[in-house]
Write a structure and sequence with these properties.
alpha+beta
Length: 279
């Protein structure tokens, strides 16, 4: 049985990819833009949506927050929400839906965790999530159902564990637009030699104010966000395209092979060559 709710919005395409006992996963592509007015919706089962590209504003009973590529959108069963694209058009998410029993099973393996509701409605991009996003992009590309089942367990575990950490302060609505533009700029130009000065100038902020605002909103610095985006692209190139380590490094924006290898190993726990050889 598919537990994912149907999406009826004209500009949203949902493709069911895989399902199992208590879980399902869908590829959701949204083409909404600033001209489309957000409207209230309601989550069916609990949901974890991995934002693969684009960004949007997610509004729930916990406030408004920016969902940029590399973020996890969290929704509790039956909760009302809305999504808006006032700062840019389009996004793509890999959406996992879970029954209470599935989440209870996962929570049982996490010491000290007593509740299966998500106390936060977003996990910002962070290095901890980069391997999960790389695995998500590869599984999506290869339509690998067994990999998606494993990924559903890993996503649920990460979301439950990380969302029960200390909650961050809510985003200020007036800052979301500029940070959304900055995140989209990085996403579209991550292979180029971007600097803080370049990005800050594009969004109309001083370098120092931009650095502080981006870090507070996204949970990491602009450079960390850029590195994570490059590493995700490199991981996909290594495993999906089967290209050489050097090709993966250069095509993802790294100019130095030793730096790439060092950063990749720190994030993924293995060398690029080892990652490439595993399926």
């Amino acid at each position: 049985m598919n537990i994912a709710p149907a999406i009826h919005q004209e500009k949203v395409t949902q493709t069911d990819l895989a399902r199992g006992d208590g879980w399902s996963v869908s590829d959701v592509i949204c083409r909404c833009g600033p001209e489309d007015k957000p409207y209230e919706e309601q989550h069916g089962p609990s949901v974890i949506a991995a934002v693969l590209s684009g960004n949007f504003v997610y509004r729930s009973d916990r406030g408004s927050t920016l969902m940029a590529a590399g973020s996890l959108m969290l929704g509790n069963a039956g909760a009302c929400y809305s999504c808006g694209h006032e700062h840019g058009a389009g996004d793509r998410c890999l959406a996992f839906h879970f029954t209470p029993g599935f989440l209870e099973d996962v929570a049982g393996g996490l010491p000290g965790l007593r509740w299966i509701d998500f106390p936060q409605h977003r996990l910002p991009p962070m290095a901890t999530l980069t391997p999960l996003f790389a695995a998500a992009e590869t599984a999506l590309l290869e339509e690998d159902a067994p990999a998606l089942e494993e990924l559903a367990l890993r996503m649920a575990g990460a979301a439950l564990r990380l969302s029960h950490a200390d909650s961050p302060p809510p985003d200020r609505a007036r800052d979301i637009g500029r940070i959304a533009a900055a995140a989209r700029l990085i996403e579209e130009h991550y292979t180029e030699p971007l600097t803080i000065a370049d990005i800050a100038a594009r969004v109309g902020l001083s370098r120092y104010h931009f650095l502080r605002l981006f870090s507070a909103t996204m949970g990491m610095t602009p450079y960390q966000y850029l590195l994570n985006r490059r590493l995700r692209a490199a991981a996909r190139t290594l495993r999906a395209d089967r290209r050489s380590v050097l090709d993966a490094a250069l095509s993802s924006g790294f100019g130095d092979l030793s730096e790439f290898t060092r950063r990749f190993r720190r994030t993924f726990g293995q060398t690029p060559a080892s990652y490439r050889s595993k399926r």
